[in-house]
């Protein structure tokens, strides 16, 4: 068998005298193979190929001193991409979505069957160089799922007739339906993901489905087009193979792009004993370690009408041995179609809109919302703070013009959501937390603020009286106040704000989604 393996390796070497990056002018960082130094920009000898790889292709590389032709350096992960792999990556307009960032260098990897291939890992894929294939087909995507699942297999499904919304694949004995089918069909299908090798199944409450080269995740309450997302199978494969993954090798946003005035979760690969901190737009992000999942997570809110565009998220990691690493990722915030309205107030009430009054109140609230309690009090989706049918009279982030002539442009926006209700209606805590404020504000009237932990707060305003007191621990559904018509209000209603990492965000998103 070893003789046959050597013959196979000789044949592979003869069919291709070049590695995928052999035509690149710039040399990648040299690595070790069998104790000898070899640059991946030149073909290794057969003798070296016949020995297991012993270098560290996962360690981040320093940035080049000067730009290198035919090579791209990814500052986010500290890895290079060149040659045929770079050509393949650049040929896909959806490369960042489908493959993600490179998380390894190009290197020769020996597989369980003894075959050695040049490969490069990405967050959601593995590229392989197959010199035995015709030119133009030599870069292939690796079948990572079986590599991750190991000996685990899924029972075949009984044959069923295919429909417009469900397809049966006799090749693997599995069906593909609805949202997963639509995503598969519109993003490359068989050539990109391969056949399904499982039915839809549950993983810690998340609906997933395995394919030969991917795993789909379903988020039914996520805005389009993020109802279906790809698992980081490249990262999972490296982790399962016990490669020495650096801190912060995995960073995910969910959703990957966030609408202004909405929330995304930031998930970072982190093992027990690793401390994670972060920052976005000058606001600290508080991370909580989930050792069981091997990640740390934080929730990040974006400011309406201010954060549209590309913004940097900085993440700092430190292990118990004093090792440190800082990684950055770009988060894109996209516009959201908020409505507009014009409101009329009597002169006495309108006086509350004076700039000094507004500034003083926002400053006081900013101090409260800048606090970070390192504990998650809430669990699951938030509840509406009023019982019975809800009538929303003004949506979150509605652009407003106060006492303006018809046709005037908005001058501000609504930082919360208004719901019509009678004076004296019980107001409930939307989620577990600690009351950190119960008092009078100029614009918001009698307000209650609940700290839900991890930089998340609820503010319930225009109340007539208080039930809960500062420092009181409340459970979801507890009555914290009675609704009213105090402050800047032109009728009885409840005003509800949710603030995440300092930014006001849409409360309804927290009702419809489970965060993190």
Keywords:
elongated; 16% helix; 516 residues; ten-stranded antiparallel sheet; alpha+beta; 34% strand; 11 helices; Immunoglobulin-like; five-stranded mixed sheet
How would you portray this structure in words?
It is built from 11 helices and 36 strands. The protein is an alpha+beta fold. The protein folds into 4 domains: 2-142, no CATH class; 144-245, no CATH class; 247-337, Immunoglobulins (Immunoglobulin-like); 340-512, Glucose Permease (Domain IIA) (Distorted Sandwich), CATH 2.70.70.10. The strands form 9 sheets. Strands 25, 28, 29, 30, 31, 32, 33, 34, 35 and 36 form a 10-stranded antiparallel beta sheet that branches. A 5-stranded mixed beta sheet has the order 16-23-22-18-19, with no helix packed on it. The longest helix has 15 residues, at 355-369. The radius of gyration is 27 Å and the shape is elongated. The protein starts with a helix and ends with a helix.
Largest sheet: 10 strands, antiparallel
> Which CATH architecture of the largest domain would you pick?
Distorted Sandwich
CATH topology of the largest domain: Glucose Permease (Domain IIA)
Proportion in β-strands: 25-35%
Name of the CATH class of the largest domain = Mainly Beta
| Unreliable segments of 5+ consecutive residues | 1-18, 22-53
Number of strands: 36
Shape: elongated
**Domains, number:** 4
Helix fraction?
Answer: 10-25%
Content-based structural category = alpha+beta
The CATH superfamily of the largest domain is Glucose Permease (Domain IIA)
